[in-house]
Specification:
Blueprint (H helix, E strand, L loop, with lengths): L1 H17 L7 H19 L4
Helix pairs in contact: 1-2
Protein name: TetR family transcriptional regulator
């Protein structure tokens, strides 16, 4: 899933999931994409 997000973004992951390419549940998609968003946020969002 990380590779799909890196190449095509969130829409690519959802498209792959809807087409059956990813054998994961809704909760797994949410958990994984949320984890990636948190990881990126830690790198790029600065607390004042």
């Amino acid at each position: 899933m990380d590779t799909l997000i890196a190449v095509g973004g969130f829409v690519e992951v959802i498209t792959a999931w809807h087409s059956g390419l990813l054998a994961v549940t809704e909760k797994e998609v949410v958990a994984h994409t949320s984890r990636l968003a948190e990881t990126l946020a830690q790198r790029y969002i600065v607390n004042d």
